[in-house]
TrEMBL record:
Cytoplasm recorded as keyword: no
Signal peptide start and end residues: 1-15
Organism field: Brassicogethes aeneus (Rape pollen beetle)
InterPro entries tied to this protein: Haemolymph_juvenile_hormone-bd, To_sf
Protein name, entry field: Uncharacterized protein
Keywords of the record: Signal
Keyword Signal part of the UniProt annotation: yes
Origin: domain of life: Eukaryota
Alphabetized PANTHER family for the sequence: PROTEIN TAKEOUT-LIKE PROTEIN
Amino acid sequence: MRTFFALAFLALASAGPLKDEPTEVIAAKKFINECVKNVLINGLPEINIPSHEPLKLNVNFTYGNFGIPNIFEKFYIHINNAVIEGIPEFELIELVSHPENNPNGVFFDYTISWKSMVIKNDWELIVLGWKYAEGQQNIYLIDTTISGTWNMTNAQSMQQSLDALTANIKIRDVELVLDNTKRDIFAMSFGRVINQALNIPAVSEALSAGLLNKFNVDWLQKGERIDAMLNYCWPKY
């Protein structure tokens, strides 16, 4: 099964632009747009993949000051109980192979997009050590794309690993809704702050490093997880 995965991956990575619709690309689109989405929605308990609809986050932190000394330095916001909705609602819109960049492996560009995702969490506003207000907030991420490159050199054995992975995130707009009050001036202003924060290069760098480690440690070095995923997607094989 590991051999089958390696061959299937090489076929996928060398398939060329999606618009050409070769057999490998059709299979890849079916795998990503159907099977991966189903796994994200339903989870795969036998290999410890939880449902990602919604995805529960272990979030419990406090931030403040907001970079404005002497004005908000005693104001803090505490965030917890966060979930993300809409992760499975993605679309693979580009997959282009560049074999000249890695003659001994696979190298391709990709772009994945989401029309909308929403982060929901509880919040508390602390002023001078006292709880001033609390409630729930929805952070809507509008027109999000993650694009980058995937680079993997063929291993002499079946112990594959990624050489490099980049994931650059771009978000067109962020809307913050506090307790379903869309006209809140603070929420509108802070939504723009969140949008600017998520689009800085450091966020993409952290995302790239995290995904590279996850693919290598949790997938390419664990054949049983790959086998379970393939058995779920293509049980007849």
